[in-house]
Amino acid sequence: MAQSPLDDGVIAVKDFESLARDNVAPHIWNYLSDGAGDQQALLENEVAWQEPWFAPKVMAGLTQVDTTVTLNGQQLQHPILLAPTAMAMSYHPDGEAATMRAAVRTGTTYIQSTLSGVPIEELGNIAREGGGDWWFQVYLHRDRAFTQSLVEAALAAGASSLVLTVDSPALGARDNDRRHDWGQMPEDGISMHERVFNPFLDSAVGWSDLQWLRDVAGDVPVWVKGILRADDAVAAIDHGAAGVMVSNHGARNLDTIVPTAVALPAIVEAMDGRAPVVVDGGIRRGTDVLRALALGADAVMVGRPYIWGLASHGEAGVAHVVEILRAELQMAMALVGVDSVASITEDILWS
Ligand SMILES: Cc1cc2nc3c(=O)[nH]c(=O)nc-3n(C[C@H](O)[C@H](O)[C@H](O)COP(=O)(O)O)c2cc1C
Fold it and tell me: Is there an atom of ligand 1 within 6 Å of 33 CB?
């Protein structure tokens, strides 16, 4: 692998995918890339971002195209966030630390997974030194005191928001993980992944747990990740969430689940501007980002794409993924005739 993604011929985000596959063991690749079941939802997450067509406005007199956004009062250089992904060290020895450095370098908010291989204090120091912004994702452990200690450590290390993931009361049917059990055929048909995470995750979670996390968080905003229905989005805000993340967990849990691009509009409508909406799942192009913003999202997250960058080129790869998406977004904004994220509306979509 060359030092620079450009030397390896990377032009688009998807160019990283095959480079990453060549760089990790097959069982790691399965864990990263697979969706649940027959992987229909994985495909549909991407396909659903192809419509509606854009309807560009010409002669818009653009002098500059500004990608900055404000989320919960915080100004970000662009609306592309790095979604929480477990165990980044499986793809690169410097995993989460390299990702944090790339995020700081590109002005990107990195949402750190509960399931991280690097001490949270170390990640916090990298962000603090570079003036970067990062959030902490929370899975509720059956032992709430354990979760509380993790959250308190993250807040002490400088996490500026918390993200409660609510879409995983159980793990999904990831057949290849089960088949290969991270390199070995399992005797009982249960993968190592399931053996580790099922006892960890608490399935008996309800809205009162959001209240509990808010109490632990104090003034720090708490987002809810894994919302696909308008009624749940409203419930999250009614229970004090600072914002919702429309996500189907990258189609990794439940196959034939609704694509996030399809779920998004009704949630935006139900939220009625009460709180911000972030969406993830299948976003691979700047045009996908623009379409998400036009459908009413305030920002997007990517998962697999930055891990492809990490697995093939470490910090430089993650940074390059963000830079490609941001440049493509800016180009697409110019081409539809908008000069700021705030001025993106549904009007740029064909109806
Ligand atoms: C390898 C991998 C690990 C993940 N781990 C977590 C996790 O620890 N916590 C979480 O909330 N979501 C996790 N997710 C889901 C992502 O946060 C995100 O919702 C999803 O990857 C977005 O879809 P995309 O990969 O198509 O961009 C994971 C996704 C992947 C691909």
Answer: no
The answer to whether 263 touches 295, Cβ cutoff 8 Å, is: no
Angle between helix axes 15-23 and 26-33 (nearest 10 degrees) is 140
Residue 287 and residue 332 in contact, taking contact as beta carbons nearer than 8 Å: yes
User: In whole angstroms, what is the distance from residue 30 CA to residue 177 CA?
Assistant: 6
249 lines ligand 1 (CB under 6 A): yes
Mean pLDDT of residues grouped by 10 in the chain (351 residues)? 87 97 94 95 98 96 96 95 95 96 98 93 98 97 94 98 93 79 59 69 89 98 98 98 98 97 98 98 98 98 98 98 98 98 97 93
What CATH superfamily is the domain 5-344? Aldolase class I (3.20.20.70)
Residue 326, phi then psi, degrees to nearest 5: -65, -45
Q: Where are the domains of the chain?
A: 5-344
Q: Which atom of ligand 1 is nearest to the CA of 33?
A: 31
What is the pTM for the complete model shown?
0.96
